[in-house]
Design a protein that fits this description.
CATH architecture of the domain at 9-26 and 61-170: Roll
Number of strands: 5
CATH class of the domain at 9-26 and 61-170: Alpha Beta
CATH superfamily of the domain at 9-26 and 61-170: Hotdog Thioesterase
Structural class: alpha+beta
Largest sheet: 5 strands, antiparallel
Strand order of the largest sheet: 1-3-4-5-2
Radius of gyration: 56 Å
CATH topology of the domain at 9-26 and 61-170: Thiol Ester Dehydrase, Chain A
Length: 299
């Protein structure tokens, strides 16, 4: 069943149930992808040894993942309405492999001032054993009708409808419905004749002997003429055997290459003569001591 594109306030009532949403079993890869998307790498959710050392039988499914299931159900059912508030409370741990089924119910609808119309929705999730694992609430704002949506999208004032006006309109609609017609085949009431009036006798048609019906004689079916045997098709001529393709002559082998002439070994350079030793520098002759000056005569 295809749902309409937009959900309007005039079409919902308190007690309407949302279609249940059954999620596939939660696996570890989904938990790892959720941790990567949110940046929440809590060891209780991704580290198996750490979770076992903490006393749990396995890693835990993040609670925000199950609350996302509630938001998915509400947003799909509201179909374009404005969600004002969303809250969730975790009741029980969800383990890898659990199948979560999300349900919901319309709890309240309100007429607010300024041409606004709001609804409150209760949502909850259960595991495959029917145990409650998460509970939440959603508050959303809707257009009253298609006319109200058109007016607001064109920049006009919203459509103002009160609860009394809505009840009056619904009462008019219920009174304007046509009464049900009588069922086909019901007898019509008969009118009794007046006292003293002569009653007309019903005419009885004369009895006539029914004519005997002669059984129609069936004509003997004509025998179909025997079919002529189909002419035999001449046997197809056998194709002449194909002549074998002539063998290609084997390619001639290239003559062996002559070895390249060996290059003469380079001549060894003659050994270098050792450089002549430089003569040792002659030692300078010792300096003669300077002659002492004669002491001056004392006066």
């Amino acid at each position: 069943m295809l749902l309409p594109r937009q959900l309007y306030f005039e079409a919902v009532k308190v007690g309407d149930e949302l279609p249940p949403l059954v999620k596939p079993p939660v696996d570890r890869s989904q938990v790892a992808r959720f941790a990567g998307a949110t940046g929440d790498y809590g060891p209780l959710h991704v580290d198996e040894p750490f979770a076992r050392n903490a006393g749990f039988p396995s890693v835990l499914v993040p609670g925000m993942l199950t609350s996302g299931f509630l938001a998915e159900l509400a947003s799909d059912w509201l179909r374009g309405a404005r969600i004002r508030r969303f809250s969730a409370r975790f009741v029980k741990i969800v383990w890898p492999g659990d199948v979560v089924t999300v349900r919901g119910r319309l709890a309240d609808r309100r007429f607010e001032p300024g041409g606004k119309y709001a609804v409150d929705i209760e949502v909850w999730g259960e595991n495959q054993r029917g145990e409650l694992v998460v509970r939440g609430a959603v508050t959303a704002q809707l257009f009253y009708s298609a006319e109200d949506e058109t007016r607001q999208r064109n920049g006009q004032a919203p459509l103002h409808v009160t609860q009394a006006e809505e009840e009056e309109r619904r009462a008019k609609l219920s009174r304007s419905t046509a009464p049900a017609r009588p069922a086909v085949g019901t007898p019509r009431p008969t009118v009794a004749p007046a006292k003293g009036a002569p009653q007309a006798k019903p005419k009885v048609p004369p009895k006539t002997a029914p004519a005997k019906k002669l059984a129609p004689t069936k004509a003997a079916p004509k025998k179909a003429p025997p079919r002529k045997p189909a002419p035999k098709k001449p046997a197809p001529k056998k194709a002449p055997p194909r002549k074998p393709a002539p063998k290609k002559p084997a390619p001639k082998k290239a003559p062996p290459r002559k070895p390249a002439p060996k290059k003469p070994a380079p001549k060894k350079a003659p050994p270098r003569k050792p450089a002549p030793k430089k003569p040792a520098p002659k030692k300078a002759p010792p300096r003669k001591p300077a002659p002492k000056k004669p002491a001056g005569k004392r006066r």
